[in-house]
Amino acid sequence: MFARSSAAQSTSMSASSAPSNLGAQAEVMPVPPSADLALSKTHPPVAFTTMKEMWELVSFQYKILDQGGENQYLAFARATPAQFESIEKHRTELRCHVRFTYFADIETLIVKLPGMAHETAHRTFAQRLQTRIVQIGIAFDEFVDLGASKYRSQHRSSKEADSSWLNQRIRSSPEAWPSLVVEADMPESMLRLRSGAR
């Protein structure tokens, strides 16, 4: 299990999609095409049909994980923004813990299935980091814990972090991007981890 952090100043995004709240001092880096971030070539998505079928696939994949499997991801193509909105509204019906990354421009949904080892990795890292932050005297509003919040780009794509923090003294806007993000993953999913950190 790996945990990886990513400073928001190096968050990849194009100049046209960079939120204005990052400020003039932020370094804006070019963003790869969504198909590259979604790893569509190496991990081809299956076609989205219905929420019922998607929930069945997620439940089945969780059973595989419980039996020692290490693939935490399912990818769905042709999921329209309206369908994704409906999926989000009905996510409690799944009765499983999931995190979503959605690429609106290519209508692709990545479903991440965090298990116990996954949650232990990033939460333990977060606890140790928070303890160290207190020890060195950083003020509360300089390191606000946002947990697994969802972040959106200007072209309607979105991603839910594992753990994230925000310096509210620098970024006070409700739409501000986080100052620090932590993503955890299984060793076999290193490509997904690197993609998520971008």
UniProtKB/TrEMBL annotation:
It comes from the Eukaryota. This is Uncharacterized protein. Residues 1-20 have a biased composition (Low complexity). Residues 1-21 are annotated as: Disordered.
